[in-house]
Amino acid sequence: MPFVRISVPAGTAAAARAALADAVHQALTETFDVPQDDRFQVIEALGGDSLVCTPSYLGLSHARPAFVQIVCSVGRSVEKKKALLRRMAELAQEGAGWRREDLIVHLVEVQKENWSFGNGLAQYA
Amino acid sequence: MPFVRISVPAGTAAAARAALADAVHQALTETFDVPQDDRFQVIEALGGDSLVCTPSYLGLSHARPAFVQIVCSVGRSVEKKKALLRRMAELAQEGAGWRREDLIVHLVEVQKENWSFGNGLAQYA
Amino acid sequence: MPFVRISVPAGTAAAARAALADAVHQALTETFDVPQDDRFQVIEALGGDSLVCTPSYLGLSHARPAFVQIVCSVGRSVEKKKALLRRMAELAQEGAGWRREDLIVHLVEVQKENWSFGNGLAQYA
Hints:
The structure is a homotrimer.
Chain A: E1 3-9, H1 14-31, E2 40-46, E3 51-53, E4 56-57, E5 60-61, E6 66-73, H2 78-96, E7 103-110, E8 115-116
Parallel strand pairs in A: 1-2, 6-7
Antiparallel strand pairs in A: 1-6, 4-5
């Protein structure tokens, strides 16, 4: 059900991009009850001035940011969201060597009937 | 009012991309009361590892997926949403030869006052 | 807190892209209480048929459209949203020479706990 878009700076190695995508998906399966085979992701690499990130905000510095947008169904608690964010940063560091400060995430929540996984059906409605 | 983003694998022929975009727009006009000239779309082609899709989910196999994100105003019924999803898959198959299993869609709903179609005005507020 | 994605036609000069991004950010700081250093943006340039825009809608003509998507937290009044849209169009024209008719915007609102600015924390929760 989640649809994920990850935006990283151009020049990020293919292995790091893949490991980042894996980290986001694994965190979703561990904390958001997302099935293993429910995986739909875009990973885009953005050249120099296409990705604008503040050098620091809220006391965190940013060197090589990854922007992660997760569209998911409504209904998760604040605690679940916190667990997802925490786990994602851990796994991105472990798997991709991504600085924890540089994983910048937001969730966009939608209604359950807003998804189609093919065949023109709203499978969750 | 809808804003549409379609993500297809690189190598998708220009004619197929255009037909897919037409199919999404036509389905919106037929089922969501979207005016013909209310059309704002991005169609992006994503190279090899930039588009990650499960080989199958919920019993549907995926070979050459198109991810379709539709931002629209809140207020459509579940029935209308189902009609949109159904019609979109039909038209994508008819017009672009797109496998119905491979049209993967989600809707993001926003408030009516959240749109500007130019001139700095919120035309629907 | 806002996450901004700006989509412009390929061929838009780098200076115009940068000025457009500046305009969007400045308008957010002036009208939406966004801190100066709370800046996270993607500016993508889209070749020919990747950006589809109606020639006109609601009486406004479109020549060289910029699509602007702003993900932000819920809670702004309609008046604040109108002020943001108005100011953005002014600044885009002043700074980037962008036609006011051609700034096409939508806001996607999310819960406060849906953001992480790094370190795996939900800083606004």
